[in-house]
Structures
1.
Amino acid sequence: MNQKRTLTAAALVMAFSTIATVPAHAAGKEKCYGVAAAGQNDCGNLAGTHSCAGQSTVDNDPGEWKLVAKGSCESMGGMLKAEAKKRYQETKRNS
C-alpha cells in the first residue's frame, strides 16, 4: 500500500510541476497582438472565432497574436494582452 501512495504522490508532483513550467519554445517570449500577417498568427484570437494557428484572415488584426522576443512587442507596433483586450472590448462596445 505504501508503494502505491508513493507512486501516486510522485505522479501528482510531476503533474503539478509541469503545469508551472513554460514550454521551451516560449521561454523568453511573449504574446504580441496586432502584428501577425494573415495566416501567420500563432493560436486562437481574442474574439474566440478560432483556436488554431494560421487562421487569421487580416494583416495586423489587433485580436490576433504571435510569440515575439520578450520586450520587443511594442517596438514592433504591437500590444500586450491587457492592452489588446481593452481595445477589443472598446471596439465591441462601439459597434
Note: The chain has one domain: 27-94.
2.
Amino acid sequence: MASPFLTQVRDEIRLRGYSLKTEKAYVHWIKRYIFFHNKRHPKDCGAQEVKQFLTWLASNRKVAANTQKVALNALVFLYHKVLKHDLGELGFSLATKQRHIPPVLEPHEVKLIIDQLPERDKLIVELMYGSGLRVSECLRLRVQDINLNRLAITVRNGKANKDRQTILAQKLVAPLEAQIKHAIEVQEKDKNNGIGSQLPVALMRKYPKARYTPAWAFLFPASHHCAHLDTGELCRFHLHQSAVRKSIGRAAKLAGITYKRVTCHTFRHSFATQLLTAGTDIRTVQDLLGHNDVKTTQIYTHVIGKHYAGTRSPLDNL
C-alpha cells in the first residue's frame, strides 16, 4: 500500500493532467530520493539534500544526462507543487552529456523482421516504421485517429502532451480497415456487458456515452479487461507494450538480425533515416516525428553518413 505522502504526490500529478508515464517516473525518483536520505521526510530536507542526491547520481551512479534531468524535474515538482518550498539555486554536478547514434535498420532488414511477425504485431511495426510512431503512440491510437481517405494519422497527447499528424502508408489501408472492424466488434461485445473503452475521467464525465462509441475504441484492444486507474470500474484498455517488445525480439532473432540491437524505437529511428536519405526536408521530418527542436532531428543526419550535407570521403576521389 502506498504511503499517504506518495498518494498526495500522485493526486497532485493527476490534478495537473500529467501522463501515467510521467507519474510513474516522478514517484520512482521521489522514492529513491527519500531512501537516499535514510527515509527522512522531504519536508525535513531542502536544497542541500537535493544537491547531494543529484550529484550522487552523476558521480556515483554515472547516470545519463537525461536520467538526471528526469530526477531533477521530479524533485522540483515535489518541492514547488506539493511542499510549496522554493529550492533556489542548486549548483549540483551535471551528468556527462552523452550523445549516442541510434541504431537503424536498412529497408531489407525491416522486411525480414516484418515477415516473421504475426498479423497483429506486423501491423503495429508497419505503423511505427511507416509513420514514425513511438510504440506508446501506436498502441494508444483510437478508431477516430485514422483517416484512410487522407492517408493521415492523428497522434493525440504525444510526448509533452502534444497532438500532431503524420503520414499513413497506402499499403496499410486494407489491413487497417480489417483492424478497425475487429476493434469495433470487440467494443460492441463489451458494450453489451456494460463495459466501455478506457477514457480519462474528465471525458467520461463530460461525454458519458463516449466510451461505448466506435470512435473511441482502441485500435489495438487488450485481450482482457482491467480496472480503471481512477474509478476502479471495469474497462478495456489497449494492448500492453511488453507484448510488442517480446514479439519484435523473437522476430529479429528468427530473421537473423542479431548483429544490431532491435527495439520498438528502432523502427521510428529507421523511418526518420529513410526519409532524410530520400531527400526529405529536415523540417518536415521534425514535424512528422513531433520534435520540439530541430537539433533532436539532426542526430539522424549523422546516421546516414555520406548523405550528410553531401559530404564524400576523400578516398572516393582518388
Note: The chain has two domains: 4-82, 107-297.
3.
Amino acid sequence: MADEALANAGLHFDELNKIRVLEPEVSQQTTELKEECKDFVEKIGDFQKIVGTFIGVVDNVAKEVEKEKMKAIGARNLLKSIAKQREAHQQQLHALIIEKKMQLERLRIQHDALNKEESEQNDFLDQLILQK
C-alpha cells in the first residue's frame, strides 16, 4: 500500500530499493535507448570512415580514368594527324607521278622528233653519197 501511495506521488523504488522519480520500466527503457544510441553513433562513425575510404578510392579511380582519357584523346589526335600527313604525302606523290608522266610524254615526243630528224639526215647523207 505504501508503494501505491508513493507511486501516486510519482516516486518509485528501483531494484536496489532506491527512490526514483521515474518508473523502473521507463528508467530501464531510457537506459536501453541510451545504449542503442551509443551503438548507433559508433556504427555511424564506422560508416563515415568506410564512406571516407570509399570516396578516396573513387577519387583516385576518377583521376586515373581522367589520365587515361587524356592519353586516349592524345593518341586519337596523333592518329588523325598521321592519317592527314599520309594523305598529304599521297597527294604529293600523285602530283609527282603526274609530273613525271608529263615529262615522259614530252621526252617521248622529243625522242620521236629526234629519231625522225636522224632518219631524214641519214636519208639526205645517203642521197648525197649516191649523187657523187
Note: Strands lie at 12-13, 19-20.
4.
Amino acid sequence: MSGEGTPDDAHDPARGERIAKWLARAGVASRRDAEALIAQGVVTLNGAVVQTPATFVAEGDAVLVRGQRVGAAEVTRLFRYHKPDGLVTTHKDPQGRPTVFERLPAGLPRLVSVGRLDLTSEGLLLLTNDGALARRLELPSNGWSRRYRVRVHGKVHEGALAWLARGITVEGVKYGPITAGLDSRQGTNAWLTVTLQEGRNREIRRVMEHLGLHVTRLIRVAYGPFQLGTLPPGAVEEVNARTLRDELGVTTAKPRIQRGVEREPLPPAEPEPPRKRAPRARRAGDPHRTPWGAKPRTE
C-alpha cells in the first residue's frame, strides 16, 4: 500500500519509493520537474490527487499524470546523441522552434537530456529514460569535465586564457576554474579547446565575450567519460550495459547467480575410462625393436 511519509522513513523499502523519484525513474521528468507536476495537482495515485512529494508508491499502485497511466520504471538506458545546430533541448518550445526530441529516430523510449545545449550549440548530448540518473549526472559534485571545441572571432591572448584557470567573475556571476588552450589561429578566427566542470547557462559564451571574443561555433566533444567521437550530426547511439555498470554503477540486468541463493548441485562427474598403457620400447640395437604404432616384425 502507498501512503504519506516523512524524511525519516524516506528510504524504508517497506513503504515503497517516493513518488517524485519513481516518476523520474519512469522517465516522466526529472525529480525536480516531477515535484512541480505534483504541485500542479496533475498527478494521481490510486485515484486520489497526490498532495505532497512525500507520498510513496508501492508495487501495484496506479499512477496517472494528466490522466495518462504511467508504467513501472523501465531498465535504465543511456544514449549518446550528436545534437545539430538549430535545435532546442526541450520537449516543447513556446516559440515553435524544432526540438531535439522531435528529431530523434523512431522507436526510442521517452527520454530526458542530461543537461542542455544552447540553440546554436552542437555536439554530445546524453539522453536517458531515467530522470533520476539524468539529475545525478548533472551534479558538479561528480567532478566530471565537459570539453568543448570553440571557434572564436577576435584577438586571442593566451595569457588571458591561462588566467581563467583561477576562476572568473562576469557581471556578478562567479565561474569556477576553466581550462582553455589555443589550438589554431587563422587571421581573426581561432579554435580553442575549453574544459569546465560546472557548465552554467551560456557560460563559455559569456566568459569569452568578457575577454573580447565572439563565439561563432561551439561543439561539445566530451561529457565525463563519454566522447562524441565520430558520431555524425543527428545520430544517436546507445551506451552498452557494461559501460553503464563500470562508469555509473548502473546494473541493467540481474546477475545470473544471485547472492544468498544456493546454486543447484552439479551432477556427479562420470569416471574417466582407464587409459591404455603404451607398449614399452625395446632396447636400442634390438633388431626386433617396434616403432610406436607399428606391428612387430616377423621372421
Note: Residues 1-11, 253-269, 283-299 have pLDDT under 50 and may be disordered.
